[in-house]
Amino acid sequence: MSRTAAAFKPASLFASNLKPLVAEYPELEARIISHAGSRFYLVELVLEAADDSREERTEILSRRGKPMLFRALEDVYSELRRADLNRAWLVSQVANDEMIGRPPQYHQPLTSRMPLSF
């Protein structure tokens, strides 16, 4: 296991170690999360397991131990470009799902995810 993968632990995915992680895992999926009614964006990174015994891991991009909030998509693009990542999914979360007890529908590409390239 490499140093970068070893550093990929819950609550430890910081913007400063994103570039080495992208270099090591070229299939890393970035999800830009937007909440209905909010003007902020979060970046969630999905690292797929190397073997079938482990599930994929998701982490929120952080800085100084706190989730990074972006005010505009262009700010997200700049941060991801710096890490040599040039594609992501825009995922829209709708509060109605939580209010009626239905799980969020993030993995349905035609209804909740839009591919982005920048």
Account of the protein in words:
The protein has helices spanning 3-7, 18-24, 73-82, 95-99, and strands at residues 29-35, 41-47, 57-60, 62-63, 66-67, 87-93, 113-117. The strands form 2 sheets. A 5-stranded mixed beta sheet has the order 3-2-1-6-7, covered by helices on one side. The chain has a two-stranded antiparallel sheet with strand order 4-5. It has one domain: hypothetical protein tt1805, CATH 3.40.1530. The radius of gyration is 14 Å and the shape is globular. The longest helix is centred in the middle third of the chain and has 10 residues, at 73-82. It is α+β, with helices and mostly antiparallel strands.
Helix/strand layout:
Blueprint (H helix, E strand, L loop, with lengths): L2 H5 L10 H7 L4 E7 L5 E7 L9 E4 L1 E2 L2 E2 L5 H10 L4 E7 L1 H5 L13 E5 L1
Parallel strand pairs: 1-6
Antiparallel strand pairs: 1-2, 2-3, 4-5, 6-7
